[in-house]
Structure formats: C-alpha cells, structure tokens
C-alpha cells in the first residue's frame, strides 16, 4: 500500500509572476527558467 502525501520539507510549487511557468523544487528557484522573472511560492492549500 502506498502512502502518497505532500511533504512540506520536500518540494514546493513556484509560479512565475510574469509568464506563469510553474517549477516544482525543494528549494526556491529564485528566477524563472523561461524568462528570468521572480518566482513566487504557490504553497500547498491542501492540508
Ligand atoms: Zn517566467
């Protein structure tokens, strides 16, 4: 049986302010890989 759940210490979802590119990473990417704009952490609304 698999226990699939999000671990806040593993990966977070970051979204580009400018172009909307989504990056899933354990660490903040800092800037968008596509356009270089700032990324924001989308967080995990699901508990
Ligand atoms: Zn971008």
From TrEMBL:
NCBIfam families named in the record: rubre_like_arch
UniProt xrefs under Pfam families: DUF7129 (PF23455)
Domain DUF7129 residue range list: 10-45
Protein name: DUF7129 domain-containing protein
Origin organism lineage: Archaea, Methanobacteriati, Methanobacteriota, Stenosarchaea group, Halobacteria
Signal peptide extent: none
Domain of life, per lineage: Archaea
InterPro entries per the UniProt record, alphabetical: DUF7129
